[in-house]
Amino acid sequence: MSGKVYLIGAGPGDPELITMKAARCLAQADVVVYDFLANPELLGLAPAEAAHVYVGKKGGDHTMSQEGINALLCDLAAQGKTVARLKGGDPYVFGRGGEEASALWERGLAFEVVPGVSSAVAAPCYAGIPVTDRRHATEVAFVTGHEDPTKASSTINWQALAAMGSLVFLMGVKNLPEICAQLIAHGKPAETPAACVRWGATARQQTIVGALADLPQKAAAAGLKPPAVTIVGGAVALREQLNWYERMPLFGRRVLVTRARAQASKLSAGLRALGAEVVECPTIEIRPMPDDGQLRWAAAHAADYDWVLFTSANAVEPFLQALLARGRDVRALHRTKIGAIGPATAQALARRGLKYDLMAKSFVAEGLLEALADHDLAGKKVLLPRATRARDVLPEELRKRGALVDIVAAYETFAPAGAKERLEAIMADGLGVITFTASSTVDNLMDMLDEPTKAKLIAESASGALIVASIGPITSQSARRHGMTVHVEPAEYTIPALIEALAAHCQQS
Asked: I need a surface site. Which of 20, 30, 38, 388 has the fewest CB within 10 A?
């Protein structure tokens, strides 16, 4: 039985610009065939077991020829595979999607084409340049800046293009002097506003603005390289008013989020909302503890405790599941006081119908101890459901105050499979910021890196080339213990406060 190929437009760079249909097709793929311009973050939308095949093509460097890609897609579909062919931008806007679809049609193989946001409109948009605006241009032409080299002669109608309002050239960096010269020679005024946008809709976005006559010289002086789009027309002048993206507080920052995948979304979304390019590489994975009976025993005797103290939101669900496994629910805690280390833990409790009696003002173990200062703990029974590895300051201090403390492991943290390889690839591409939300994220990241990369990370943090953002003092201590310089630590140890503090630091630096 034959499979099916989805020719998917991956958009221009910002992973949030992918369509809902594209995400659905990726989620059912057996194989993802992706190219140079597709954001690697999108690979995470495919099933974990899906195979990844890189067929990247950039100027002068083709991992696989177009004919080879066509044959690969056909072979995979003939094997019964569901294939997500992830292409930068839109498959049919100078993306050779038509050639790949024709090859599949000729073999009688099923395919669908999923349109994507083309860089022809997205890159100018993210640079503050509308491709049409009735004050400047009522028509737009999209033109290849790199014609098929096998053609006998150019088929570009320069005379017609010179008379149009807006022109957008794709893949034209190498031929930029010729493009500008041809337009001027065919009547386009030399002073016409023009711009080049490289790596549009990413943290690497670079915009060069000039006139048609001097844009090639400005681009050369800036060392402009592909991938880039060129925009010519009066609407380019609107960039001074409409340049929204490059004015965002975290624009130009490539930020590594090391938080566990299930918890990363809030941090990642907050960073992206401020213009950061976010790359996720969880250095910890959180799993409930295998059932050894201890947690279920503690849950069954929850009513015997005077206090249950939750030092992490991660402990809430495993504890309550253990309670349910013993045929009980939250009513078993009606006489037990509950302590939460911070608002995230309090929210996790509230989702399960539990209200805390006490919450730390500073969201660390010491904060809980401070909040308990006015409570007589002598002879009181205290239960601590927590991670397998945790600091002992809380139970030790509680025992000094006369409390009878039981510790049960509710969850464990460890390095996710494949994280080391992904981290190496991310570090090789360069970073501007690393965020840490727990000591374990720091320890695991440093354990994954080889010695030269560790030394580079430490040196870049010391020079300020790499910003290290830590959620709180305990995490910061771990980072400093590994030799890193910490630049950002919010006064309140929460994700929103971390994002706000990082944005403030970047705006000042």
From this structure: 20
